[in-house]
Specification:
about 290 residues, alpha+beta, six-stranded antiparallel β-sheet, 7 helices, 12 strands, about 25% strand
Amino acid sequence: MDSTPGSLTELTHAFLVDQLRHLGSHEFVTIGFSNTPLVAMEIGRTESSDLEVRVPPRLPTTPLTAPMRNKLLQAGFTSGDPANPLEPWIRPASDVETAIQSALTILREVFDATIDNTVNLLHGSHRAEHEANQRLDELRDRVGSLLAAITGHQLTMDAEGDFICPFDHTQVIIAPRVAPGAISLVRVIAITNTGVNVSPDLGLMLARLNFGLMFGRFALDVEHRAILFDETLLGDDITVDQLRFTIDVVAETTSQWDARFQQMFGGRTHQDFEETERQAVTKPGNIPSPYL
């Protein structure tokens, strides 16, 4: 390995190979360069210790463009949801050398990074994320059983694995949530209106309403011009009575306010808007944070 432009020096390459060969299951190394400090690739091992190269999740404000996604597809990378910046792009690798070359190629051809000897390496682990996903599956099973006891039948789930509970005038979404290293939560959410006229008056009204509420809160999805009402329960100790009460309160509060919001700020209520609008709305707590 020489030190020509677009390659690593022999010493840097040998060091990187050594780091990768000592990785355990779920462990990874990120590779980046000083000229593109906000871009990095991951090379790591799965639960079964197979090698894989990953484009890590990105912030919603800096998604991959369509041409970038096309280049990743051509390079053999796949994503569970290509349009979702929070989903990683992954390609299996047969050996360490193949993984390194794949990561460098993506950095150079997709992110326009200059490959030089100033390599930024960072060690990490996806073990907590893996364990959180296992806990989320267990929580979904538990919540599904509780909802079946409440409604008398199994509820359907949406594309994000959240349960849909229909009512006459609204629809309640029951959303299990588990973040790495955090407690289990269950969000109970209803979309009251979509297509509203977003204004300071609307924000002030929702703030005043929230101040006077004993249970639940209103939230505003500015991007999709939608108002939501939701409450959060602790997932580990959730009971049938707690979940039933929360669903009833969320549904009733939504039914009390959706027509009023429509009169004051326009838009559509649950009975008016289309399924595509409902799917576009961002559910509270869907963006990872240090707390949830």
